[in-house]
Each structure stands twice: as C-alpha cells, then as structure tokens.
From TrEMBL:
GO molecular function, one term: channel activity
Ribonucleoprotein among keywords: no
Similarity field: Belongs to the MIP/aquaporin (TC 1.A.8) family.
PANTHER family: AQUAPORIN NIP1-1-RELATED, AQUAPORIN NIP2-1
GO CC terms: membrane
Membrane topology label: Multi-pass membrane protein
Protein name in the entry: Porin
Length: 208
C-alpha cells in the first residue's frame, strides 16, 4: 500500500505538472517524491520506482519475490495515476501536447541522460537510505528528491526527465512520451538500476 500511494502521487504530480505546463514542475516533482519518501520509507523503503527496487535487489536489501511484488504495485499505481490525470486535467488538454518523439541523435541523447540520472538517483538512494554508515540520518528524503529535481532541470528538455519506469509508462498513457520510443527509456533505466547496485557493492564491500 505504501508503494502504491507513493508511486501514485509521484506519477500524478508528474502528469499534472507537465500537462498543465507548470514552470515549477521540477520543484513539485522533487518535492512530492521527498515527502512521500519521508512518509513511507519506514514501512516499504520508499522506492516508488522499479529501477530503485532493482538497485536495492542487486544490493541485497530485498528478495526477488518481494521485488516482483513491488514492481507489480509500482507499475499498477503509475497506470492508475495516468488515468486519473487524463480525467482530472481532461483528456482534451492532455492530447493537445504532441508526444515527445525521438530519433537519431535525440534518441541517443535521451538514452544517455536517462541512464545517467537514473543511475544517480539509484546510487543516491542506496547510499543515503540503505547504507550502514547512515543508519538514522534525517536527510535521505531531501537528497533523493533533490536528485530528481536536479535531473529534471538539467535534462528535462532532452528526455522529459523520467528516471523511473513507472513514470515512463504513465507518461506514455498520458501522451507525454511516444509509445514507439518507450523502450529507450526502459532499457536505460534498467541498466542504470543494475549498474548502481553493482557500483554500491564494489565501493562498499563490507556493507551487507
């Protein structure tokens, strides 16, 4: 339930902010992720992102069965949020935006920035929220939220700044991303989650 609630509000905020062309979209998205992490991390870890769950799985802080459950809930909550946005904002307003379609250099650029910032996000989560060296810190939610906000500001104009497979799928449902190029995001994000988990283990061999 915690993963469902957190993922829902994250994807809903992304969709509502982008489809209404809010100039403060990166701030709102980073902020809602931060507060939902503070609200639910003590119960579920506050992943709200299948790539983060993958990184935590590689890192060894969640089992495969639990990870599968997280992924089902995260994608389901993202889809529900997208449907709610289409009905609350209005399908006509959602569809007035042309979906982000990528090809050529733009496609490679989107892959690169999604890989980089999804890695950054997962790497930050592992270090501030799962490390033995930060057992009782109070900054983990802010660190994670600001990572997403920084990514959205830096590369939002290049890829849309998803950094999250649930956001990616929800964005396609909301006609923010074009379906034919969705695989670019999902592949980049999966590689980034794996790489972040492996990197954490390599840099922290004694942190089991």
């Amino acid at each position: 339930m915690v993963e469902a609630i957190g993922t829902f509000f994250l994807v809903f905020t992304v969709g509502a902010a982008v489809t209404t062309a809010s100039p403060l979209a990166p701030v709102g998205i980073g902020a809602v992720l931060m507060v939902m992490i503070y609200a639910g991390a003590h119960l579920s870890g506050g992943h709200y992102n299948p790539a983060v769950t993958l990184a935590v799985l590689v890192r060894g802080k969640i089992g495969l069965v639990d990870a599968l459950g997280y992924w089902i809930v995260q994608f389901g909550a993202g889809l529900l949020a997208a449907i709610v946005v289409r009905n609350v904002v209005g399908a006509d307003r959602v569809t007035t935006r042309a979906p982000l379609t990528l090809s050529g250099h733009a496609l490679l650029a989107a892959f690169a920035v999604e890989l980089l910032f999804t890695f950054a996000l997962c790497y930050v989560v592992l270090n501030v929220a799962t490390s033995r060296r930060h057992p009782d810190n109070t900054f983990y939610g802010a660190a994670i939220g600001f990572t997403v906000m920084a990514g959205a500001v830096a590369v939002g104009a290049i890829s849309g700044g998803a950094f999250n497979p649930s956001v990616t799928l929800g964005a396609a449902v909301m006609d923010i991303f074009a379906w034919p190029t969705l695989w670019v995001y999902l592949v980049a994000q999966a590689i980034a989650g794996l790489a972040a988990g492996v990197t954490f283990l390599a840099l922290n061999p004694d942190d089991k």
